[in-house]
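Quiz preparation item.
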């Protein structure tokens, strides 16, 4: 018994809806990503503050420096033993800004210090940054919502 195939030998699929849905999913997940948490480290537990508020707008050129509980510093993903080890990293950031025709004075240094970190070390970080040529600083804290 011979079976005859009915219909065309070639089936043409329209991939347009599938491609459209793929791009919509990509856009959806890009919106869900919180890019502000990209520079955070779990070892840094921010202090709580009743007057802390989120920044009104993201800074154009943020440079994040983090300090963990044992006074070690994290910059660009590297753990540094003391404040003086920051100098080469800050000079590198300053050089990168110069290659982009930007001034270090306009860059914002974001300092995320552990809640049990010594305040004097945070002040030393600011002093080293000022010696290199940075002038804008932001200290991060966890906001308390009290009702």
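Solution:
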């Amino acid at each position: 018994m011979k079976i005859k195939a009915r219909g065309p030998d070639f089936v043409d699929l329209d991939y347009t809806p599938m491609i459209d849905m793929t791009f919509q999913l990509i856009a959806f997940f890009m919106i869900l990503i919180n890019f502000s948490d990209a520079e955070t480290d779990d070892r840094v537990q921010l202090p709580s503050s009743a007057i802390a508020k989120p920044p009104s707008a993201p800074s154009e050129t943020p440079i994040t420096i983090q300090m963990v509980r044992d006074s070690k510093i994290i910059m660009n993903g590297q753990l540094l033993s003391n404040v003086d080890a920051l100098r080469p990293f800050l000079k590198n950031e300053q050089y990168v800004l110069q290659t982009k025709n930007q001034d270090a004075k306009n860059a914002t240094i974001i300092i995320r210090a552990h809640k049990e970190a010594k305040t004097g070390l945070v002040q030393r970080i600011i002093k080293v940054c000022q010696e290199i040529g940075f002038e804008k600083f932001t200290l991060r804290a966890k906001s308390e919502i009290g009702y």
